[in-house]
Every structure is written in C-alpha cells, then in structure tokens.
Amino acid sequence: MLELIKWARTRKEFSKETARDRLKNAIAVDRFDLAPDIINALRIDITNAVSRYMVIEEEDQQVRLTRENDSMTLVTSIPVREVHRWANNN
Amino acid sequence: MTGKTIVITSGKGGVGKTTTTANIGTGLALRGHKVVIIDTDIGLRNLDVVMGLENRIVFDLVDVIEERCEPSKAMIRDKHKLDLFLIPAPQTRDKDCISSEQLSELCRQLEEDYEYIIIDCPAGIETGFKNAINAAEEAIIVTTPEVSAVRDADRVIGLLDAAGIKQPRLIINRIHPDLVAKGDMLDKDDIVDILAIDIIGLVPIDDKVITSTNQGVPVVHNKNSASGAAFNRIAGRIDGEDIPIQEPQSASFLKKIKAFVGINKGEYSHA
Q1: Which domains does chain B have, with CATH numbers?
Q2: Domain definitions of chain A by residue range
Q3: What is the ipTM of this complex?
Q4: Do the Cβ atoms of A31 and B158 come within 8 Å?
Q5: Which residues in chain B have Cβ-Cβ distances shorter than 8 Å to A37?
Q6: How does pLDDT run along chain B (271 residues), one tens digit per residue?
Q7: Looking at beta carbons, which residues of chain A come within 8 Å of B151?
Q8: Given an 8 Å threshold on Cβ–Cβ distance, is A16 in contact with B151?
Q9: Residue B74 contacts by C-beta under 8 Å, 6 or more apart in sequence?
Q10: What is the pTM of this model?
C-alpha cells in the first residue's frame, strides 16, 4: 500500500521542477559566458604575468572557458619561445 | 524639487513592460505625485495607446531632444487630469537618433519639476536599452514566470550591474495562481532563488488588463481588479511604503461564476 502511494506521488513530476532545473542550467552557462572585451583583458593580464618568466609568442594565444558536466575550467594556451635565463633551472 | 528617474526594463519583449510602465506611472500619480513617463521605444511607440492618449500627440521625444520644442510642449497630460504626463516616442525615426547623454540631460531637467520620471525601455539589450538604463538611477525589471523571460531578466540584471545600477527590483507579471498551486508554473521563491533579486510586486494574470487596455485606461484605476490592486501596491512600494508582498490567490468559485455571467462589468472607478 505504502509502495502504491509512493508510486502515485512520484509518477508525475511537476513541470515547474523541470522548468527550474533547465533555467538554472541555462543561466549558469550564461553567467560564465564572458564578454569578448573581458576575455581579451584577461588574456592580456595572463600574458603579462607569464612574460615575466618566459618569452612568449604573440600569435596563437587562446583563453577560453570550457564546461564539462557541472564544472567550468579556464583553458589558456600560450606558445612559449624560451624561458628567461634567470628563471632557468641550470 | 529633486525627482527620481526609474527605468522599467525586461530584456525579453512581450512580458507586459509597457502596461507595467503605464500602471506604475498612473499609480504614483493617483497617490498625488507629479509624474512624467517617457516612451523610449523609438519607432515602436505604444504607451500612447495603452494610456489612451494617441489622438493628442503633436511633438515627441526626438523633437524635445533636437530642441524643436520645449519639453512641456511634448508632454501630453493624462485624461483623468492627474499630474501625469507622457512624452511619446517618435514613430518614424531611426532607433539611434538620440544619445545616452541627451536622454540623461532631459531626465535631470525634468527631475527639477517632477517627482518621478518613469522610462519605458525598448525590448532587447541594444542602444535603446543602454540609453534608457544610463539615464536612470533605479531600475525595475519585469518578467513573467517563464523560462525564457526569467533567463533574459538574468542577463539584464548583469547589464544593469555593469551600468552601475546595483539593486534593481523585480516584478513578476502574469502569474497564474492555479498553475502555481498545481506545481506547473515557476513561483516567486523559484525565481528569487535563481535571480537573487528583491521583489517589488507580483501581478496575477487578469482579463481586466486586456479590457482596460482596450479602453485606454490603465487597470490601476480599477482597484477592485486583482491586477489593478497589485499595481497599486507596487506604486506604494516605489513610493517607500512598507506593503508586504502578497502571493496571488486563485479566484474564488463565486468570482468565477460572476465573471462568467458578467456581473463585474463596468466597475472602473476612474478615481
């Protein structure tokens, strides 16, 4: 009997629950969508920091946010020509 | 006098922004305030018909901005002789014909003589929207309890924040109490939880909005209607009154029968 009541209660999901979950998801993605000028500002800040330690290429730099399941990762790709002598291990 | 400029915005179109603007402006004027409403939806003006003033337009917002007339010449007085004026949008001009600075300057000028300047913002997040929000110090966002409208409201909150308007307040319009009760419509708590924003009013879906718009009389004149009462409370809250937020209730069985046989007709007070 208890099983029957449980089944009856879970059988129909309220459509607003679906709406809320989808909305949360969509907004989470929207909020991580950085504006192009902000991405560029971030790229410049990162490359300035990195170039204190190494000589980097100006071309082919990439900064982007990627999403995998529920987590976001900032992926940065900066080609390096050489490491500054003072920062070298030798 | 130092007035206050408030922009009514939404991001998404069709959520009742113009109706809300007309009702907030009228609600504030019914409380005895001096109010100017500015329609900034250039090329798609609508506030004039919603307020029943479409036959009185001579000059418009761009005539004022381009100094072809004094602001007072373009201000159309409300039909009910309230201290309520509309500056209509031009219908035939390009969207980009006014600048943010020009609109701001006009609002500062109007603030010297009026207590509330209410700006009806165009839908979207382009130039017209940016001009409207830059001219205002406070913002009210209108949404409906739908995924698309709430999502756009979230975008708008971010853009307002970037423009320096830190605490916009939210109106949830066209709430269906029956659907909320059945769990088939997002409710106030769901939306507040997602947007993290203060609510300034909840407006139920109401046929009276349609009939009052047909007549060109904002529904807030009819304080017996559910939506009119809700807009009146919103005006009170904007005015600094401490009025608790009420969740819309389903219409009672008796009211449904009355509505069905048409007993509630003609109850506009025009007060």
Answers
A1: 4-261 (3.40.50.300)
A2: 2-89
A3: 0.80
A4: yes
A5: none
A6: 789 999 999 989 999 999 999 999 999 999 999 999 999 999 999 999 999 999 999 999 999 999 999 999 999 999 998 999 999 999 988 777 899 999 999 999 999 999 999 999 999 999 999 999 999 999 999 999 999 999 999 999 999 999 999 999 999 999 999 999 999 999 999 999 999 999 999 999 999 999 999 999 999 999 999 999 999 999 999 999 999 999 998 866 656 666 666 655 444 434 3
A7: 23, 26-27, 30
A8: no
A9: B58, B59, B60, B61, B63, B64, B87, B88
A10: 0.83
